[in-house]
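Example complex used in Figure S2.
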Amino acid sequence: MSLFDKFQPIIDIRAELEKIGIMPFGAVTEKILSPTEGIVNGHRVILAGTNNYLGLTFEPECIQAAQQALVEQGTGTTGSRMANGTFAGHIALEQELAAFFAKQHCIVFSTGYAATMGMGSTLAGPGDVIVLDADSHASIYDGVRLGGAEVVRFKHNDAADLEKRLRRLGERTANTLIIVEGIYSMLGDQAPLADIAEVKRKYGGMLLVDEAHSLGMLGEHGRGVAEAAGVEDAVDFTVGTFSKSLGAIGGYCVSDHAELEAIRFAVRSYIFTASPSPSVIASTRVALRLMQERPELRERLWANAQRLYDGLKDLGFQVSPQVSPVVAVTIKNRDQAIAWWNQLMHRGAYVNLVMPPASPTTDSLLRCSVSAAHSSEQIDRIIDAFASLKPDNTQAVN
Amino acid sequence: MPDYNEFLERIFEILKPFAKQGVILNKHSELVTELGLTSLQVMELIEQIEDHFDMSIPLNILPDIRTVHDLATQLEKLGR
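Predicted assembly (478 residues):
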């Protein structure tokens, strides 16, 4: 026995992939040409696996703001938010995010992972209970494991199963935190938040929603699934990231609970890490404003999502349960998924290869994420690349 | 609440497909190293037990479980 034994499955799969000359994990973007094109592992490709939903990564105004912050404030804060790492920009962004979400309080974190993991590990501790959706992101699982609360899963997107579990808890729901996501990152399906909010109202507890993949996409103002479902009042904490629709890196938590200002000083992923660089904060602030000023970005995103979804479905692929900026093709055979991922690269489309345990089932996924910056022609080229995988387009792929 | 033996019986039932040819499932069978369950399959096992006995099983018990016996013991404790 050695410390390294537990890594053997990873060592094996890496060796297997190296032998066939395909390296899907940690693919290198050698040159980024635009929000939607780049040279990856030596191939010029359309980027269809970047989560750059609104395509703001090359937005001139964002770049200019970041450049100005670099010149005026330097390359980094070199410290924690709790010590020397809170600049005026961090506070301004917190105020702007709170205003955007129509909430009273906001914490800005260094990454989305730090936000979700930090809140999950801090809000509920020993003696408390967390009831989370079974398909929750790794950052949620990591957080709740650290916190020491009793952790129970409910079946993915099944409000009735959540209700059953809350009912079993009886009075313990008073110190229970329910955790769900808005749009789920792997399949792009949405949480039935109206039903979940109703169950929460009936049984008590608090609700945290991770809108990492839904910020800027749903609801009248783009606040996410909770806004679209009309249940923002039932959500106690909303967490999310700047690394997707806002094209930068960082995370946030917003809430109407005044206690969030005290909780800030209890979240270890906030205290014991350096704060976001001023340039990141500057571009994020502009992107947040542009996201609100340009609802047409959201319209383009959904039009592109619909186009890709319909195209892949028409080809007979097993696509996600509902149309979303995340369009995932499910493939039962892992080796087939690896080979197809590689063929897509050669055909000019970069997508994400997802294998268990990162995928929600024992199946593998070719996961696409759509951007508002994709042209219709680029979406069609992605569809064409998928079409090339199948000599017989009428046969359903499982 | 079911007792140890009822849990044991149900776990054996669910794990039947995982028993390799010639291997007889017993309470000392190890879920991961011997039967080869992946983390996803362990979660499916937990879900099936939850459904069958109409109970919630906290994930917190998982680090203490290596064998079928460990699982049945932890499940029995939950009912106490």
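Chain B has one domain: 4-78. Chain B is about 50% helix and 0% strand.
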